[in-house]
Amino acid sequence: MCRARGLAKQVIGPTGPLDILNAVDLDVAPGEAVAIIGASGSGKSTLLGLLAGLDRASSGSVALCGSALEPLDEDARAALRAGRVGFVFQSFQLIPTLTALENVLLPLELASGLNAGSAKRTAEAALERVGLSERRGHYPRQLSGGEQQRVAIARAFAPGPEVLFADEPTGNLDEATGARIIDLLFGLREDAGAALVLVTHDPALARRCDRRLSMSGGRLEVTA
Fold this sequence. Notes:
Helices cover 35% and strands 28% of the residues. It is an alpha/beta fold.
C-alpha cells in the first residue's frame, strides 16, 4: 500500500539547513496497521504527510497504492488519493460551514463517481456506523470533540479507502472518549480491510497495531 525508500526532508531554519527526516525506509502491506511513535518534533507528522503525498520530500521516493509520487504534480497526487486514501487528524479538519452529513459527502462527491442519491445514502450509512445519524444536520460547532472525530472517521471511511493515515486521532480527546474512538477506528478498519498508518503518543493506541516503529532524530527504528 505504501513504500518509502531513502526518504529525507530538509528545511531551512534561522541557523541554516535542518534535517527533519533522514534516509527513512518503510513498507506497509495491504491491511497492515503500523504505529509511528516518538517525541514531539521527531518528524512523525512530517513522515505521514510525505507518505500521503501531502508534501514533497527533499530526496528519496514514495509509492502510494502502487504509484510513484515523485513525477506527479499536486493535482495528480490529489486524484490518486481520491477514494483510495482516507485521513483522520488530531484537529478533526471538518469544514465549519458544512453539516456533518455534508462533510462526509464531500469526498464521495469528489471521487467516487456515485450519483447524488447513492452518495447521500453512503454518507448516511457511514454516519450511522459511527452512531451519529441523529446529528447529520448539525454543524461542527454544535458537536462535541468526540462527535467531531467520529464525523471525521466516517468521512475517512465512507469512500472505502485502501489505506488510512491518522495523525494523533485521540490527541484532543479525554481518555474515555479516546478509548471509544480507538475501538471505532479499528473496528471500521477491520471491516474495510484497509491498511492503517498512524502517528500517536498513546501507548494503548499503538499496541492495537500490528507493528510499532519509533521516530528519533529523523530516523525510524523498530520498537517492542
